[in-house]
Write a sequence for this structure.
């Protein structure tokens, strides 16, 4: 008990010195708990949503995906005849059944042709107003739609786009554009995270979405009293046969949930990963804090040993302090985590993702995980310093100076560090030269981990050299103040090393990802330049297919040399090796596609693949199925008949765009698939006449003005968009890494603050013999900058190494160009200097305010 | 007005002695009301230039406080202190720091040196901080006088206690301050090392014309001084010129006896 009492007293006596360590624990635990609460809340929200919007049993047309997206090639949702509804109603145990029509392959625009679709990536849904919806939504103004010129909109969408009753709305589907005026606004009774939903009456929905009446996409069935969903499903299947997909509420919800869950899981684990990095960085901070506390208390500990405390007691008293710190930081962290989750939900609100705090879900595991992690990590981090405390000799009580550094330990450290780094470098080398991506990735992971640990171990030794170099370059300008700053940074290399290493981890990841990111952009740009021979690409960003009307409009645009259509369908292949490959994708394009995308062939001429009854396969496929030039493959097209196609070209598998594609011509496809079943275009490529690029671009845009669902991009747009997308992703990751970097900055502040306390007498002496406050503050700032730059240098070097290795490895996947984003690297390096300045603000201020006489008198 | 780098021209003994520092009606009090403690009670003192002055007195007599106030390390409650012609009472921290840097030298009882700097760097530190080039010739002379020539590249941890104090003396001398203040400079040394350091201080007064003020409670140390001031209860109660250790000891015993009976 005495141990605990001493620990408690020590803990509270030094609470100021523990503060930053507590903040580090708090932040990391908060991030973990915040992530868990946030993802759990999202799950709850979707659970409730799906439970509310799903009927007891749902019948859908064959070919419909679980989430109701359009899968048929003609851009319309798969449907069933209205007679199915009648049959379902006759099934036993059915209380009621209702036909629904809805589609997500739609674009909805306002009167100005501006899209009303959510920007968050949530779907846009247009359907008929049915009983199921009436249960989950409440009409808050106006009335349900009746007749072809009425539409009802959900309240969130109406709010966001300032839509009022009577406003005109256009629903654009594969059928065409249907215009209606808003008759009503309905509000969700459960949280709708962000889908934009529009309702038409049943007949209008059928016409606008499918182009014919008397069909439904789904039938919602409600069970009679006492009939289970399972039983009802059996009864319905017995009645209508197996041509339709019949699912119970649970099956539908599970299927819906699956998509959401896998997305949420990716997000959860990514965020937990970043929390893990923050924890790792926090460990350095905690180690430093306890090392310094132990060093400062050497005499005190020596005294305790002299009067009879055992090593274990000393050891345990330090660990008990760590335990207190861990508990304190974690408890606050758990609370902060819930706050963080609420903050995140609000932030999502700004990005059109509406979440309600009513759904806030704090599982019992969340605080347990948070507390456990926080406490275990803190105690583990304090273990080394605690052991060192246990080794303090009773003689320390009598000696004045703290023991000099152990030379043997540092030699051992050097050897271990160099061996680890060397092994890591070997791993990286193997990864860079690997010809199998999977094995290479393994080597890369191993190399990254080993070099990181190696650098951390060897860091204190590197600190000497690096700080001297930095000092020679930067600090000499500042004369004796700079020199003293350099000496101070060098004084305890282990401390400088650990502080720098904390910053190194975050910055290494930043450097690595920025190298990979810019290499991705550079490689893709390079590929586009090398292989793309067309000027414009037209596609729908919501996944809608391109209607023949739109293609006609494009073809009519002046200044174009050619327009290439690109379709995609599935077929069952029977290959020469006697195998049948079901549902294999095949691309049908105009022959000019061979010019628009210059795909290398290993045999034959790609243009020949567009001749009648011809096709191309890719190298790997040819190898796997014993296909040569001139082989015949029997291809049973979906929605069509079977063709015997001759292979006239074999394309290289080593391409980035259209990897693994097999081509045939649209004319060939049209021979076997009836005109009304022909898939619509996925993409359209347009090439301008020489020198008319700008005019053609304008003309194309004008031609597509009436089709706001499609976007035209020229090569510059396309590259820019690619760059933006990667940039956005990187920014998100940098944002998450910011947590680790903030903890690292806290570490620098912590080290400086504790160093200032430790050097109180020295500071007093310097002030007495004439060091001005300004010089003193500058000295501390310089030390901070040097530590930060040391971390940055190591981190950026290591990260660029990782990034370059990753690029070499990913060259197998088409990441052929290595580009080091020097501007980013330099900005990060210079930024680190500012981080150092910033971190020194408070410690420098406090050192400057120290009373000279008291400082000298300090023991 | 005397500039910071003026070498005091007068020898340690004889001749006209100007006043290097003076205190007039200096009061230093801590706290207020009933807990008010007066450390210095209307002290008047003149420190002669080119002389070695010792301040003695029992613990709590205010001797250290007087020195701290004279040296511009501590502020006074009332009264004036001049270093040469400059009034330092009322100076802002920036000016005081400059004054300490350019015109005053210090030798503390312990922890005089920065552990990260070697002996030479420690010696030149005040000039480095001021951005002044040390006078090579003078520096060599100082180093020679304190007998450190072979150890200039050593770090403090590699020097003995006596050597460390000698480095501190060299540092105090090297910048040619108007006054050197010593706060029990030999308090942590054995008698031989102490005698060595005191010998250097004496010689710097005699040979280099340095002004030195030293606080001590050691009669032997005080016997190196030209003049001894006795403080008790924050007042100067006596002084002695050209003392010997025995005289100082006797005087101290007197005070002790008086202190006990009163």
């Amino acid at each position: 008990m005495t141990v605990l009492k001493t620990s408690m007293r020590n803990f509270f006596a030094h609470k100021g010195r523990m503060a930053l360590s507590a903040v580090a624990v708090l932040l990391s635990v908060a991030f973990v708990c915040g992530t868990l609460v946030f993802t759990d809340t999202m799950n709850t929200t979707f659970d409730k949503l799906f439970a509310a919007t799903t009927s007891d049993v749902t019948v859908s047309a064959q070919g419909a995906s679980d989430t109701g997206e359009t899968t048929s090639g003609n851009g319309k949702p798969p449907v069933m005849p209205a007679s199915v509804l009648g049959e379902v109603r006759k099934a036993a145990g059915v209380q009621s059944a209702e036909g629904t029509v809805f589609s997500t392959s739609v674009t909805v625009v306002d009167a100005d042709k501006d899209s009303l679709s959510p920007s968050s990536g949530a779907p846009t849904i247009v359907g008929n107003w049915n009983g199921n919806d009436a249960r989950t939504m409440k009409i808050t103004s106006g009335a349900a739609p009746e007749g072809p010129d009425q539409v009802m909109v959900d309240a969130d969408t109406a709010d966001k786009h300032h839509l009022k009753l009577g406003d005109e709305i256009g629903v654009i589907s594969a059928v065409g554009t249907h215009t209606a005026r808003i008759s009503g606004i309905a509000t969700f009774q459960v949280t709708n995270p962000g889908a934009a939903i529009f309702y038409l009456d049943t007949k209008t929905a059928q016409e606008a979405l499918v182009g014919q009446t008397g069909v439904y996409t789904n039938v919602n069935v409600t069970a009679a009293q006492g009939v289970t969903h399972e039983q009802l499903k059996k009864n319905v299947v017995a009645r209508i046969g197996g041509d339709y997909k019949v699912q119970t509420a649970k099956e539908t919800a599970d299927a819906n949930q699956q998509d959401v869950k896998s997305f949420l899981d990716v997000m959860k684990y990514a965020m937990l990963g970043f929390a893990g990095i923050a924890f790792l960085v926090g460990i350095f901070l905690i180690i430093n804090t306890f090392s310094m506390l132990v060093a400062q208390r050497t005499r005190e500990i020596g005294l305790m040993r002299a009067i009879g405390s055992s090593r274990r007691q000393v050891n345990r008293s330090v660990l008990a302090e760590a335990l207190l710190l861990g508990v304190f930081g974690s408890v606050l962290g758990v609370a902060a985590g819930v706050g963080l989750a609420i903050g995140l939900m609000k932030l999502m609100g700004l990005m059109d993702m509406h979440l309600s705090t009513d759904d806030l879900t704090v599982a019992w595991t969340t605080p347990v995980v948070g507390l456990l992690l926080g406490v275990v990590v803190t105690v583990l981090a304090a273990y080394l310093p605690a052991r060192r405390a246990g080794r303090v000799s009773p003689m320390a009580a009598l000696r004045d100076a703290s023991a000099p550094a152990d030379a043997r330990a540092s030699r051992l450290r050097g050897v271990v560090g160099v061996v680890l780094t060397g092994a890591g470098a070997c791993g990286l080398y193997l990864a860079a030269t690997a010809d199998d991506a999977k094995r290479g990735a393994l080597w890369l992971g191993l190399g990254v981990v080993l070099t990181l640990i190696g650098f951390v171990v060897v860091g204190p030794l590197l600190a000497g050299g690096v700080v001297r170099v930095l000092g020679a370059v930067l600090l000499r300008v500042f004369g004796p103040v700079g020199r003293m700053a350099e000496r101070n940074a060098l004084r305890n290399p282990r401390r400088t090393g650990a502080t720098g290493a904390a910053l190194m981890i975050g910055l290494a990841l930043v450097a690595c990802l920025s190298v990979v990111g810019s290499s991705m952009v550079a490689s893709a740009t390079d590929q586009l330049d090398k292989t793309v021979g067309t000027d414009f690409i037209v596609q729908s960003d919501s996944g809608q297919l391109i209607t023949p009307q739109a293609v006609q409009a494009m073809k009519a645009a002046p200044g174009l040399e050619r327009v290439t259509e690109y379709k995609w369908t599935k077929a069952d292949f029977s290959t020469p090796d006697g195998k049948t490959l079901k549902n294999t994708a095949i691309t049908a394009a105009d022959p000019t596609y061979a010019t628009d995308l210059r795909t290398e062939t290993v045999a034959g001429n790609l243009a020949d693949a567009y001749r009648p009854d011809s096709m191309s396969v890719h190298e790997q496929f040819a190898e796997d199925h014993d296909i040569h030039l001139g082989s015949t493959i029997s291809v049973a097209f979906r929605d069509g008949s079977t063709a015997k196609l001759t292979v006239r070209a074999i394309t290289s598998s080593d391409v980035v765009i259209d990897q693994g594609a097999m081509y045939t011509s649209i004319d060939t496809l049209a021979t076997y698939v009836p005109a009304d079943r022909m898939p619509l275009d996925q993409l359209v490529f347009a090439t301008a006449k020489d020198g008319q690029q700008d005019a053609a671009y304008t003309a194309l845009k004008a031609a597509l003005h009436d089709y706001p669902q499609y976007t035209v991009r020229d090569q510059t747009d396309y590259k820019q968009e690619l760059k933006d997308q990667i940039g956005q992703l990187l920014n998100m990751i940098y944002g998450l890494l910011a947590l680790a970097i903030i903890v690292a900055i806290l570490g620098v502040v912590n080290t400086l603050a504790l160093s200032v306390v430790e050097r109180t007498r020295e500071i007093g002496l310097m002030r007495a013999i004439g060091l001005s406050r300004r010089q003193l503050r500058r000295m501390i700032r310089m030390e901070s900058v040097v530590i930060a730059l040391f971390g940055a240098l190591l981190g950026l070097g290591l990260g660029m190494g990782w990034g370059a290795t990753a690029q070499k490895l990913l060259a197998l996947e088409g990441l052929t160009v290595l580009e080091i984003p020097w501007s980013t690297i330099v900005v990060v390096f210079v930024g680190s200097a500012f981080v150092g300045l910033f971190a020194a603000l408070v410690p420098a201020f406090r050192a400057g305010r120290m009373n000279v006489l008291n400082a000298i008198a300090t023991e | 007005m005397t500039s910071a780098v003026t070498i005091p021209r007068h020898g340690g003994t004889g001749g006209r002695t100007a006043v290097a520092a003076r205190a007039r009606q200096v009061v230093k009090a801590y706290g207020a009301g009933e807990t008010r403690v007066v450390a210095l009670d209307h002290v008047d003192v003149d420190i002669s230039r080119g002389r070695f002055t010792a301040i003695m007195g029992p613990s709590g007599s205010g001797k250290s406080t007087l020195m701290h106030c004279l040296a511009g390390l501590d502020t006074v409650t009332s009264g004036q202190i001049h270093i040469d012609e400059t009034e330092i009472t009322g100076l802002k921290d920036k000016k005081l720091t400059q004054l300490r840097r350019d015109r005053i030298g210090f030798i503390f009882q312990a922890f005089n040196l920065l552990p990260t700097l070697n002996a030479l760097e420690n010696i030149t530190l005040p000039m480095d901080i001021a951005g002044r080039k040390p006078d090579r010739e003078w520096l060599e002379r100082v180093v020679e006088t304190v007998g450190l020539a072979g150890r200039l590249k050593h770090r403090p941890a590699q020097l003995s206690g006596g050597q460390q104090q000698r480095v501190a003396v060299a540092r105090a001398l090297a910048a040619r301050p108007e006054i050197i203040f010593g706060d029990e400079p030999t308090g942590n040394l054995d008698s031989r090392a102490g005698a060595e350091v005191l010998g250097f201080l004496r010689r710097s007064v005699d040979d280099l014309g340095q002004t030195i003020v030293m606080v001590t409670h050691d009669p032997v140390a005080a016997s190196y001084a030209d003049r001894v001031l006795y403080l008790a209860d924050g007042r100067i109660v006596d002084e002695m010129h050209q003392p010997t250790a025995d005289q100082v000891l006797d005087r101290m015993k007197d005070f002790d006896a008086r202190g006990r009976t009163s």
